[in-house]
Structure formats: C-alpha cells, structure tokens
Amino acid sequence: MRVLVTGSAGFIGSAIAAALEAQGDEVVRVDWMHPAAHGVAEAPPGTHRLDVREAAQDDRFLALLRGVDVVCHQAAMVGAGVAPRDLPAYAGHNDLGHASLLAALHAAGVRRLVFASSMVVYGEGRYRCVEHGMQVPGSRATAALDAGDFENHCSRCGRRLAWEPVEETARLAPRSSYAASKVAQEHYAIAWARQAAGAAIGLRYHNVYGPGMPRDTPYSGVAAIFRSSLERAQAPQVFEDGGQMRDFVHVDDVARANLLAIRAVAEAAAESCAAYNIASGRPIAIRDVAELVGRGAATPIDPEVTGRYRLGDVRHIVASPEQARRVLGFTADVAPDDGLPAFATAPLRD
Question: pTM value?
C-alpha cells in the first residue's frame, strides 16, 4: 500500500511512517517543518518539504498524491490556543490546511483518509450526579477556584459530580482555538466524504507521550514538561490539586492505531466518516503522572502540587476506547504505570 503521511517529521507522524515501513508499506513523507515544532532543523532525508495549506494549488503536492492509496494527515499546529490572538494561526494551519488537502485529494483521485483529531473536541468530560443523573457543567467559577474547589458540582443539589468515560457520541464543545480547529477538521472530513464519495477516519488522541517527543516547545505535552523539570533538578509543578483525570497513551500505541485505521479505511465503503477515541483505557490523575515520571528519573523528586489554575482548563476528560476496540481492533499495549517511568529516560527531540 502507498501511504502519504503529512507531518511525517513530527513526533507522531514519524512514528507512523516508521511503523508503516516496518510492515512493508511505501511511505511518501511530507512535512513543512514548522519552526514552532522543529526549530531550525533540516527536513529528514526523503521528506518533501511542502506546505499543506497550499496542497490544492501546488503541482508538486498533487504529483505526490498520484497513485496514493491512503493519506494519513498528521500535520497540525497544536498547543493550548487559549488567547483570541491565536485564532488566525490555528484557522490557517489546521482549518485551511485540512480543507486544502481534501481538495487536493479530490483532484488527485484519492478517496481514503485517516487524520489526527483530539480529545479536546469534547471540552469538559462526562459527569453524573448520584441523585440527579447526567450533568453538563459550565465553566468553573473563579471564586471557587480561588478557594481551592476545583471540582464540578451538580446544578441542583451542589454535590460534587463524578466523572465517567466519554463516548464518541458525546457533544462537541471546544474551549480553545486548537479544539475549535479540530472540530472543524472533523466537519470538513464529513463534507468531503459525502461530496467526493470518500471514506475518512478521525482519531481523537488523548495525551500522547513517548520517545521522540519534542523537548520544551509548544508541542510538548505535560509529561515532557514534568520530565524537563526533573532534568533541571526542580520539582514538577502540578496545577490545581493534581486530581484532574486524564488518559495517557504511548506513541507506539497511537502509531498502531493509525495502521489499523489505514487498513480499515482502505477497505471501507464510500461516503463514510467516523471518529474514534484513541486512549490507553487506564485513567490517571495528573499528580500520579508526575510521580510516575519522577519514579523513572535518575534523581527522583516529588512533585509540587501548587493549587494554581488556568482559566479554561477542564477538570476531567477521559474517553472510552471501546468503539476503537470493537471496530478497529485497537487496544493499547503500554500501560501508564510502565510507560511513564520509562519515558523519564527515553530519548527526546530537541
């Protein structure tokens, strides 16, 4: 199978490309080498340095797409994107880039796509009150956060809400520029699949970590930030009370999920588009993430739970991976209890 991978020099894209080649597939590597992700690094050998935002107008891009069976789209601007000034950058790189790629696929006759989405499309997670059932909490009040009350509460009785795994059918409620761009990418893919008689699969990644993760850039995740603190002999700084529940999924598992999705979409009926949660299925508190990374460090340092908070952060977001298991056959192999300590000494990309 011939697969074109955008963002092929990035953290996740490079892992996918390597996994595809290891199983005998032909990989066409494309990466613009965004300075925020790659600094001044040169493009790896065999990489076509092209801007996905220009895919529909660039004859070089269109030529690369000829004869491609599936496109695996990983190129994106990531990060929090919480300031209004960030909106044009995310709309340009993610919305326009995705739309231009879809137009190029149609022009080149490619009708199969796998693309990176994110858990951030959900906003807050799924919550239930023991007495009043399901709840959709609003933004947490600043006064409550200042008082050290970080949980969401029932709108009727005030009890603390319990979190539950989020399924793919949950509402989409983006809370940042990045999240809004990922929702837009999913919607563009739905429209493209219908208009071009194509098939697409979006993978909603949770917190991805592992070897090759960028160090100290906007593309670094919280696990990498904790690790960098330890390398400076500083205690990892944990926001709120550290009880925020998340799911951390190893990059090798994410690469394998993409391979399964590529096979599935290659065999899919036309005019289909679906999204799947890609998660370890083993929820973990942020303070435990810091402790596990610290456990694997050469000189372990206990994390510092600061009580500080960031407006716009969600309290809990944990997804159910059941649909990905049932449809794609994906189950994560690397448990956070094993992967996070090993990550403390894994090679990173500067």
Answer: 0.95
